[in-house]
Amino acid sequence: MALNKERASAVRRTDRAESGGEDLLAQLESLRRPLAGDVPLAAEVDRLARPGELYEKLPDDRVHCYACAHNCTISPGGRGICQVRYNLGGTLYVPWGYVAALQCDPTEKKPFYHLFPGSDTLTFGMLGCDLHCPYCQNWDISQALRDATAGRPPGRATPAQLVSLALRNEARCVASSYNEPLITSEWAVAVFKEAKQAGLTTMYVSNGNATREVLEYIRPHTDGYKIDLKSMNDRRYRQLGAVLAHVLDGVRMVHELGFWLEIVTLVVPGFNDSEDELRDAARFIRSVSPDIPWHVTAFHKDYRMTDPDNTDARTLIRAAEIGYEEGLHYVYAGNMPGRVGPYEHTRCPACQAELIRRIGYVVEAYRLTAEGACPECGTRIPGIWPESPEDVRLGTLADLFYRTPRRPR
């Protein structure tokens, strides 16, 4: 894979570990401790790995990993910022052959609102992340090897087993989520290849801190891509462990490469909820495409961020209004079923006809034609839609408490 020379010049030195010798097991013994310290989980996870593909070799057995926009340069025996990609003797080893989280989710939970409404998505996650958000709802897996109190025992899996589970549970899609999928892209591609052969749709649920190289690597096997746009303030982003410009570049590249893209902003009081910042986010999305759905969702206290108040419905409604004021065609206020007025529904941007009516993860009405168009004026609505409207699972308010994530059978 060709390496972007400008990115190569910007790689980061993340450690100064020395080589652990020739023997693989001996090298694992001398692998630098993760940030969490000498935790038992590290020894188990470090063995669930194989040589990766998203890197280049450098002099002195160093490697440059470009699975995410940190572009880590890793010395022998060292780890990348994510803690789960590491260098043994000049070879980058990457997570493989396990899941740390596995659920059958409503596709709307990802959230994807313009991708097979009413369907289910078999969703798997691994361990580790390239960011360290203090409000992460999946911190127990994303911060494994960073936080000694985090971590979940991994369960061995094969791509064929995951696809078989998806089919058995009548899922329409398979997604890599919960932790950051970019840092486990080799494994995701292996799963997605099997999934595509079985006729399933595949998605990433990501922070968007991507390189062109990783996006080109996953694109042939990945249909949908959801990005968390966490702030429009670079200082805030750096507090989370990323650079705003890198995420904005990620959004642009995902759209340019033809993934179906939806964007989410978790609205956190006192962090990113000012009208100016929300307006900046909407304007940026509009500059890429007004057809990108923007989800504004409610924060609740979690992990290390317990000071701000939980986001109220009024704040979400105002954020959605700002999105429309700035020219976006599809803006959704999420995770407050029945409390955000019309902002759970999809409307035609041309004639304002209601096309998809939702409450929470339940689709109450679906009026798009088989061609994915408004039945009133014929405007094509961008997305990945079912071939027949009759394929959409419909429900009522009574289904709200049953349309939830479930353990695969």
Notable characteristics:
409 residues, alpha/beta, TIM Barrel, 2 domains, 8-stranded mixed sheet, 4-stranded mixed sheet, 11 helices, disordered N terminus
Polypeptide structure, described:
By secondary structure, this protein is an alpha/beta fold. It has two domains: 5-94, no CATH class; 98-399, Aldolase class I (TIM Barrel, Alpha-Beta Barrel), CATH 3.20.20. The chain has eleven helices and 20 strands. It has helices at residues 5-8, 24-30, 40-47, 139-142, 159-168, 185-197, 212-218, 234-240, 244-256, 275-288, 313-325, and strands at 12-13, 49-51, 55-57, 63-65, 72-74, 86-88, 91-95, 98-99, 101-106, 120-125, 155-156, 173-176, 201-206, 224-228, 260-267, 294-298, 331-334, 346-347, 354-359, 362-366. Strand 6 and strand 7 form a beta hairpin. Helix 5 (159-168) packs across helix 6 and helix 10 (275-288) crosses helix 11 (313-325). The radius of gyration is 21 Å and the shape is globular. The two termini are 39 Å apart. The model is unreliable at 1-22 (pLDDT under 50).
